[in-house]
Amino acid sequence: MALPQPDRFNLSDAAFTCELRRGDRVAEIVLGGEVDIAARPPLDNVLHEALGTDSPDALVVDLTAVTFADSSTLHWLTEVKREADAAGARLTVTTAPGAVRDLLGITGMKPHLSD
Amino acid sequence: MALPQPDRFNLSDAAFTCELRRGDRVAEIVLGGEVDIAARPPLDNVLHEALGTDSPDALVVDLTAVTFADSSTLHWLTEVKREADAAGARLTVTTAPGAVRDLLGITGMKPHLSD
Amino acid sequence: MDDTPPSHWSAPATPYEVGRLRRAATAAAAERGLDGRALDHLKLAVSEALTNAVLHAYPENGPPGPVRLEVAGEDGAVRVTVSDRGSGMAVRSGSRGLGLGLGILASVADFCEICTVRGEGMRVSVGFGCQTGC
Amino acid sequence: MDDTPPSHWSAPATPYEVGRLRRAATAAAAERGLDGRALDHLKLAVSEALTNAVLHAYPENGPPGPVRLEVAGEDGAVRVTVSDRGSGMAVRSGSRGLGLGLGILASVADFCEICTVRGEGMRVSVGFGCQTGC
Ligand SMILES: Nc1ncnc2c1ncn2[C@@H]1O[C@H](COP(=O)(O)OP(=O)(O)O)[C@@H](O)[C@H]1O
Ligand SMILES: Nc1ncnc2c1ncn2[C@@H]1O[C@H](COP(=O)(O)OP(=O)(O)O)[C@@H](O)[C@H]1O
């Protein structure tokens, strides 16, 4: 799968990064840094962009570079899951050991998120 | 509509009463006294009996004689609504001024319950 | 709120104790001068706190642990405290509720204090008829 | 927990202040000797409490009210308090959330104290690295 030039969103807070990568029938949202309530508007935008135009078969949300996340991210992930289901796109959420995986463990949400 | 002999459930706690009345294509659950978590098993039973055998066109839940209710009743009413919708029965919840109507007011739930 | 000593009760945290304890708290609050809508609200708040102890404090398949109820105050200013020795508040992914109980309780009380210690239990105090903060 | 005076900050309850205040609290807690997993958990709990003040304390369409953050303690035993002057906890039928925030916060803290006064605001205290109750 060819990954074209990424669309890049950078918040004024340098800590949070959000990238959308598009491949053949696959969209990948790559987040980095600290994700909290202030990130909600760009997160909603990137989700609509990822699923919006012509809907991919697979959506990947890559959280491996996220250094901090709280329930704001969980609320957004719930929305991601709902919209991916509605668009018929397979969802994969990838995490690394650390803050995000701990949070998913605390809340028992990991099993609900990926197909 | 003819109301035949009511099925009557009485809890050991005299305060709570629960009656199922069946008319022509209508089932009516009439509650009285104090309704709390201890009432949940008979409430679940009466709901299944009301909708179970051959499903009525209309379900009436009469709470006018209820003197006390808390979130246990709201949780049950949410279930009643869900099961009535699934069975295709119109739901009407009737209340009198007092504890139940206050509770529905506090929680803003009244509009969600009846059709 | 100092002269009349507090009333208190302990019982197993089971559904059937909720009504008995709720009625005991309501009667004690009435004796302490609370009445009208505030008394109705106290009754509702106590029922929510007791129901939470029954539903959430202890493992579903074990024997029920204890719940303690205390009513304090006088001259129409009353504080009720419900405490358990359960798990303390935690995230429950398969939660059976709507998240209504604590919201109702906090909505009707003048003030509300919730203390939870991980693995040691939860204590909820609600105040009625008093304008003191917490 | 008595010698080092508490650190505190005040800010408008807006999304963009959450990160700044969270990082300030985390740095202050580290200076007070908290580290490792407990420090990560404090950071998470503070973020949840601040987010609640942003989302729930003040009317959606008005100007943001204030949120206050305090970090106290020393020798690895730290208490963080987040308070607002908003509506206090109440039932919200069209709630935007999952009811996760307070559950997460109570799950990771050693103890948690929530005080809410109707119409006056809410205060959430969380303790880390201390075995004191509340
Ligand atoms: N006494 C308690 N012990 C442990 N957890 C509790 C207790 N009371 C409440 N909780 C937790 O807080 C959550 C919210 O409680 P509540 O607002 O009463 O909602 P519900 O309507 O789901 O019971 C519950 O789902 C539960 O996880
Ligand atoms: N600072 C606050 N001021 C007013 N209400 C609050 C505050 N914090 C929490 N609440 C109320 O408590 C409810 C539960 O909060 P929380 O567990 O954080 O869930 P959510 O994930 O919905 O934000 C909220 O829906 C809100 O009604």
Give structural notes.
The complex is a heterotetramer, with two copies of chain A (115 residues) and two copies of chain C (134 residues). Chain A is α/β, with parallel strands linked by helices and 115 residues long. Helix content of chain A is 37%, strand content 32%. Chain A has a single domain (5-113), classed as STAS domain (Transcription Regulator spoIIAA, 2-Layer Sandwich). Chain A is built from four helices and five strands, in the order βββαβαβαα. In chain A, strands 1-2-3-4-5 form a five-stranded mixed sheet. The two termini of chain A are 21 Å apart. With 134 residues, chain C is an alpha+beta fold. Helix content of chain C is 35%, strand content 28%. In chain C, strands 1-2-3-5-4 form a five-stranded antiparallel sheet, covered by helices on one side. In chain C, α1 (15-31) packs antiparallel against α2 and α2 runs antiparallel to α3. Chain C is globular, with a radius of gyration of 14 Å. The mean pLDDT of chain C is 90. Chains in contact: A-C, A-D, B-C, B-D, C-D. Chain C binds chain D through residues 88-92, 95, 99-100, 102-104, 106-107, 109-118, 120, 133-134, and chain D through 88-92, 95, 99-100, 102-104, 106-107, 109-118, 120, 133-134. β4 of chain C pairs antiparallel with β4 of chain D, so a sheet runs across the interface.
What series of H and E elements makes up the topology of chain C?
EHHEEHEE
Distance between the termini of chain A: 21 Å
Helix content estimate of chain C: 25-40%
Q: β content of chain C, as a range?
A: 25-35%
Number of helices of chain C: 3
Question: Can you tell me the number of structural domains of chain A?
Answer: 1
Query: Which strand order do you get reading across the main beta sheet of chain A?
Result: 1-2-3-4-5
Arithmetic mean pLDDT of chain A: 85
Strand order of the largest sheet of chain C: 1-2-3-5-4
| Biggest sheet record of chain A | 5 strands, mixed
Q: What structural class results from the helix and strand content of chain A?
A: alpha/beta
Radius of gyration of chain A: 13 Å
Average pLDDT level of chain C: 90
- List SSEs of chain A in N-to-C order: EEEHEHEHH
Strand content of chain A: 25-35%
Give the end-to-end Cα distance of chain C, rounded to a whole number of Å. Answer: 14 Å
